[in-house]
Every structure is written in C-alpha cells, then in structure tokens.
Amino acid sequence: MHWLFGDQLGPHFLTPGEGGPGTETPLLMIEARSVFRRRRFHRAKAHLVLSAMRHRAAELGDRVTYVRADTYRQGLERAARGRPVGVHHPTSHAAVRLVRTLPKVTVGPARGFLVPMADFAAWADGHGDRRLRQEDFYRWVRRVHDLLMDGEQPVAGRWNLDHDNREPPPREAASLQVGRPYRPHEDDIDEEVRHDLDRWERDGDASFVGRDGPRLFPATRAEARRALRRFVEHRLATFGPYEDAMLAADPAMSHSLLSSSLNLGLLDPAECVERAERAWREGLAPLNSVEGFVRQIAGWREYVWQVYWYFGEDYRRSNALRHTAPLPDWWSGLDADAVRANCLRTVLAQVRDTGWTHHIPRLMVLGSHALQRGWDPAAVTDWFHRCFVDGYDWVMLPNVVGMSQYADGGRMTTKPYTSGGAYVNRMSDLCGPCVYRPGDRTGEHACPYTAGYWAFLDRHRELLAGNQRVARPVRQLDRLADLPEVLEQEHTRGDTPP
C-alpha cells in the first residue's frame, strides 16, 4: 500500500518512481481524530483539511482505503494488517518520527517542492559558517530551474525587483480595482464535514476557534487549478506593486490565495511559477509582478521548507531574546472585538473570520505586536500553525521563530521585523480611523506600535546595538526625552488589548 497524508493530495504524489506508488498500487488515507483533539485549530482550517481529504478519497474511488480512526497508528494497523507500506517523506518532524517507528513502513523522498533536501544540504554546507541568505538561495534555484533566466543571466539583468514592489495602496481607494479571487462552491462533502465538526464540538471531542463557512479556499485539484488560472489571468499583473500594501476593506488585494492549495499538495510549485513566467513572456503581466510571485514560491516558500529540515528540531527551542510571556486570552481566542487599535482589530478579525491574511499583516501587525510584547516564540508559532488555513509546522516554525520573532538571533534574517505605527500608516488605510495616532508615543492617543517599538528596542538595546540595520534607532533611544514615560506606559499597558 501507499499512504497519502492529508497534505499530499495532488497527482504529483502518485506518479511512479523515486518512492512513488505504481499505477495499480492500493492507496491508504487516514483521518486521525487525535490531530484535532490535541490542538485547538481554526474551525475553517479543520473544515478545509477534512474536505480536501474526503474529496480526494472520493476521486480515487475503490483504489483508496479511507480510514477514520483515533490515531494514525490505529488506522494503519486496521488497514495495512502487516503489509508493507510506502509513504513520501512527511512534512513535519513529528510525522517523520511517527512513520519511522512503524513496522514495515518505507519512507521515500519528499515531493511538492523544487529542490531535493540533499541538494539544499550540500548547498548550505558549502557556505560554512556564513549566514544562509535567502537571496543567494533564490538565485541558485532560478539558475537550476531556468526560471526567468536569459541564458546565465536573469531576464532584464536584475535578480531582485523588490524596489518596484513596495508601493503603498492607492490613495482614497477602499480596494484595488482587480478581478475578484476565485471562490469555490460547497457540496455534499462540505456539508458532511460541517456536520461532523459540529458533532465533535457538541460531544466535547474537539474545540475550535474562529468561524467556519462558507469554504473560501480550494479543496480539490480542479478548484485549485481554477484558482491559479484566475490569479494569473486577472490578478497577477497588479500583484507586484501592492504586495506589501494593506487595505481594511480588501484583505486579498492582488494576492494569489494559493498558499493553502500548495500546502495541501493540490498544486505543485513548479506549475505555479512556470505559469507565471509564461504570462510574462506572453505580455500578460509585468516582470516586477511575476518576479515577486516567483520569489515568494521558488524563493521564500522553498527556503522555509529547506531550513526547517536543515536546522533540525532544536531550532524549535530558539529564544535568543528570552521572551517567555504567555499569549493573552483575547489573542488566543481571536477576540478582535476586544481590541481598539484599528490595524490589529481589523487583521485579527480577518483571521477570526477566514483563517487567512496576507504576509504583511502577519509579519508587521500580528507578528510585530507579539514581538514587542515579548510573548513566548514557541507559543506564537503554535498559534500561527493552528489559526491559519495554510499553517503547517514546516511553514510556521521558520517564519515565526526566524523571521517574525527573531528568536534565532539572526540565523535567517538580518534584523528584527518590527516597526512603529509610521510603517502601518504609510502602507495602509488602517490608521486614519484609529483612536491612536501613529506619531504619538505617550498619552491618550499613543500608538501601541510606536510606543511598543521603542520599548522593545530599549529592552534589547545591548543585543541590537551591534546590528547595523537597527543600530541607528537604538542610538536614538538616548535622545528620546520621554523614554522613561514610554517605558512606564508600556509596562502598565502590559498585555491588555491595545
């Protein structure tokens, strides 16, 4: 038998060769209730994962044995009955530990990524003690996979078009004037999933956060392909300039919303970047938008996957800033209504209602607040894992520990990614109606991000003084006449909803 995990749902997981199953090999899928019992997932995420698994099982028909069990181990014992089982390399350290303790289970290479793990390890080992810069890795992937290349050089002579992709949102615009993202239609399988989730909650078998329904993200290969086509044809052209911008009434902007489909295995990254490159070569999208999209998938997504395995399990315990504060209940429960700060209230409500926001709200609103408040990075990582429809351990561990919370002390990034309210004000329309003012550090209208930024720098000034990218604002601390007042104010504020 060949075992398909719930994030290995596309056809590229069934092609023969390199540990893949033969065309007639029986397949196994296991729906383990214990997964939802152990963690308090977002309801929309639980719905999407179960819907995708059950849709895939329906497509595979008699070839698959679909087992609903309490644990993976019980499901395997019930279905395999001592027969040999093959499986592609799972996507988490915990799942790898599990399959390697099971009798007669053979683990093949990972699929769904552009670079084999051994190739990345060889590339990384060749760097010695130097930092593994994502930019260097991205250029290497571009060369190896001939993505946006003109012979040995990048097309148009530039590897990086980030400078063209940092525009604030159009002034006085409530939304970008682009085609709407693809949205699927629910069916009988979705109705069954929702009924089961209701029953599990009613019986006390599982507990969820957030709201569920209607389903917003693809649960089948056909839906995912339609979402990719819609993005490339109607949204890719405007993706680049505004990929870092935020609008309160337009959370999707021109983003692809394909991350959950990629992370479920419904789409292969190669088809996404190749489709985008083809759009540029056919004159359907500008280079800066296409390069920005290719960078997100062939650069950042691939890099995060690789360093998750390369850094190993000890990376999870990284805590260079020694942050240990627990997450407050209003945050854990997605209680956006308890928050007054418009940016945080808006973004937290988006997570509550959909299980998704794009990368800038994640990093510069949610992650920045957690970093400034000194919350335990392991708890923050778990929260992102549970509360986002595209959240998996391999995705969130490097993104949160490395980039968002700077808990690894700079192994992945060159500085902590946090800022005062001026950044949010420049890149969004969120500050205008807020009760706080981005330029105020103290007083009734003191922006919690502006005050929190200076309090964070002061708390870690000794560590950050030697970092070239933040040394200047650290030096400015001594020129802030109201710094004692700022620190007292933020100490008093604590973890109450800002």
UniProtKB/TrEMBL annotation:
Gene3D superfamilies: 1.25.40.80, Deoxyribodipyrimidine photolyase-related, DNA Cyclobutane Dipyrimidine Photolyase, subunit A, domain 3, HUPs
InterPro entries xrefs: Crypto/Photolyase_FAD-like_sf, PhrB-like, Rossmann-like_a/b/a_fold, UV-DNA_repair_photolyase
Domain of life, per lineage: Bacteria
Leader sequence segment: none
Protein's recorded name: Cryptochrome/photolyase family protein
Organism, as annotated: Streptomyces beihaiensis
